[in-house]
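Crash report, auto-generated. Payload:
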Amino acid sequence: QKEVEQDPGPLSVPEGAIVSLNCTYSNSAFQYFMWYRQYSRKGPELLMYTYSSGNKEDGRFTAQVDKSSKYISLFIRDSQPSDSATYLCAMSAGALPGGYNKLIFGAGTRLAVHP
Amino acid sequence: NAGVTQTPKFQVLKTGQSMTLQCAQDMNHEYMSWYRQDPGMGLRLIHYSVGAGITDQGEVPNGYNVSRSTTEDFPLRLLSAAPSQTSVYFCASRGSGGVGRYEQYFGPGTRLTVT
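Recovered output after restart:
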């Protein structure tokens, strides 16, 4: 079983839709939870990060962490064609070998927003 | 700032050949890492460095070698290429202070094919 599970999609939505992307994980030691966006043939770029449980909002993006359920989500409101990309969740924990240098990634969900 | 740069962008190797993937960053970051990305697997950590002269293994280190003689550069060496090393390789760096210490900046990647 992978430490981090993420549905690879693809997910296809119309412009303006609310998108929900999710990951589950098995290691309760994870403390930092990140969402990266990766455009085709580019490197990942950090969208948001959260520490422990709770919500964080940044513009059209909201990240949620539920440590009790080992479940994290990224919501995109008013989705745009420019949001079409692969979204990767990633996690780390200072107490684990490698500490914050070692990000454990989900497989990524491919999102397509069509006009 | 150029951020994280990687060369070459593309490379084709024959089985048994060796080569070095170059990575450089101009953000004076202490920490640098190498990941590989395979379809359906997300990104997996190969090696990382916490400063000049200090490196450690990640999740999938076999067949790769690293060294870090300067803060800026972190080359990845393939000792004897195998088809299983066909992948996209990403270099990343992160700082050590403030909230930025959780953010890893990724390079554009090197696409490697081993035949």
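Post-recovery validation: Chain A has no helices and eleven strands.
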